[in-house]
Amino acid sequence: MNKIVNLDTCYAMWYVTESIKQLSEDANLSIIECKELNKIRSDNNKRCWLAARKILRMLLKTMGYNCYDLIKKNGKYQLAAPSANVCISFNFPYAVACVDRSRCIGINICTFKQKLSKNKYLSRSEQLIIPIITKEWLYTIISTKIAAAKAYANDNIPISNIKEDIYVDHRPKRLACNIYGRVGRNLFITNFFTTEDYVITWCRRLLKKY
C-alpha cells in the first residue's frame, strides 16, 4: 500500500489479494455500511470496497478524525457525519482512497482491461476536438470526468450525466500530468498518474469561474 501525504491531503492505494473473510476481520461495519456492502453484487468489488474502507479509515485516523461510517449520496461515497472531504474508488484488484481537510475532491481509478466507450462518456464536441491518441489517453479523459463528477457530487450533479454536464479542456497536455475542465461555469483541475495497468485521476475544484 502506497501513501502520499501533505498537510491537508492524504491518498492511499491497496492491491487487493485478501478474501472477503480476511478483509471483514475487525471491520466493525455499521448498519449503514452493511447495507452498502450488500448492494454490491460482485465478490471482487466487495473485496475492493472493504479494502477502500480500511485504507480510508486509516487515513482519517492519521489526520485526526474519528467519524468513519461511509454512505453513498449522489453517486459518491462520503462520511455519514461530514467532517472531512473523502472519496474512494475501486476496480479490481485495486482500491484507492483520499481525504482532504478543506476542498471537495474526487478520485477515480480505471484499469486498461475495462471496456469503456467514448460514446458513453464523451460529448460529441469533445470527440471532435480532443485528440484521442491511445487507449490509455482515452481512459485518462474518461477517468477525469468520473473524478470530476465525484468532486461535484454534493452539488447534485449525478455521475450518470457526466457526458454532457462535464466538459474537459480541449487542449490537454499529456506531459504536464494535469487536465483542466469545467462543470457548468465551475472550473476544476485533475492530476493523473498512469502505469501499464491503470490510470488514477484525482480532481480538485477551483475557485475561479469560467
Description:
The structure is a single chain. It is built from 7 helices and 11 strands. By secondary structure, it is of the alpha+beta class. The chain has 2 domains: 101 residues, Ribosomal Protein L22, Chain A, CATH 3.90.470; 101 residues, no CATH class. Strand 10 and strand 11 form a beta hairpin. It is globular.
Summarize the structure.
The chain is an alpha+beta fold.
CATH H level of the largest domain: which superfamily? 4'-phosphopantetheinyl transferase domain
> Secondary-structure element sequence?
EEHHHEEEEEHHHHEEEE
Which runs of at least 5 residues are low in confidence (pLDDT < 50)?
A: none
CATH architecture of the largest domain: Alpha-Beta Complex
Strand order of the largest sheet: 7-11-10-9-8
Looking at CATH, which topology of the largest domain would you report? Ribosomal Protein L22, Chain A
CATH class of the largest domain, please? Alpha Beta
Strand-helix topology:
Blueprint (H helix, E strand, L loop, with lengths): L1 E4 L3 E7 L4 H5 L6 H9 L3 H20 L7 E4 L2 E4 L5 E7 L2 E7 L4 E7 L6 H4 L2 H6 L5 H17 L10 H4 E3 L9 E6 L2 E9 L3 E12 L1
Antiparallel strand pairs: 1-2, 2-6, 3-4, 5-6, 7-11, 8-9, 9-10, 10-11
